[in-house]
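dumping this here so i dont lose it
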């Protein structure tokens, strides 16, 4: 039986669906509670983006490419991009299309831009820098996020709405109500795979 997928015509429509499962609650005793919320969200998005891109790289390097897995990793990368788009208020339609290049080179370029954005986060968290420091400007992170979005558009090709739909379907299986740490740690991978396959 095929599931009914939510129609997601564009990135602006995807963002609120993705953010439904964002975890922004920070316990008072947690070290993260002392980080300003915007910095916390950007750090979470960049950390997640790097981990998803590394998993995407693994999928591309496999002897036999599992395209459901590729779509899953792209969907997860887009989920983190939704956080960045919400923080910096941009849309993929505002981003010029990237040149068509080989997938591995595009993934390497995503890592390069994410690393530059992470450098700003590092300076803000560990060096106590702010916008008065040229190398800690949110403008750098916003620029890099838009470039990453453009590269993800190239990797996703014409499959963007399907990738977004399947990502939201997977997240609905994992978090029927909202994010919970318990559900994040105890996932039903078979049910998630079925959602990714459109079943």
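and the seq i came up w/
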């Amino acid at each position: 039986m095929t599931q009914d997928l939510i129609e997601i015509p564009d990135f602006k429509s995807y963002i609120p669906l993705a953010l439904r499962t964002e975890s922004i609650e920070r316990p008072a005793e947690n070290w993260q509670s002392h980080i300003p919320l915007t910095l916390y969200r950007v750090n979470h998005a960049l950390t997640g983006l790097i981990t998803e891109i590394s998993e995407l790289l693994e999928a591309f390097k496999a002897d036999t490419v599992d395209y459901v897995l590729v779509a899953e990793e792209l969907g997860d990368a887009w989920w983190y991009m939704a956080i960045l788009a919400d923080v910096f208020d941009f849309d993929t339609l505002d981003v010029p299309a990237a040149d068509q290049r080989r997938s591995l080179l595009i993934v390497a370029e995503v890592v390069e831009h994410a690393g530059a954005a992470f450098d700003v986060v590092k300076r803000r968290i560990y060096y106590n820098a702010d916008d008065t420091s040229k190398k800690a400007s949110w403008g750098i992170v916003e620029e890099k996020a838009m470039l990453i979005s453009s590269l993800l558009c190239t990797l996703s090709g014409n499959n963007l709405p399907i990738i977004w739909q399947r990502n939201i379907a997977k997240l609905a299986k994992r978090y029927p109500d909202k994010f919970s740490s318990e559900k994040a740690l105890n996932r039903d991978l078979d049910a998630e795979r079925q959602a990714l396959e459109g079943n």
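The chain has one domain: 11-17+33-170.
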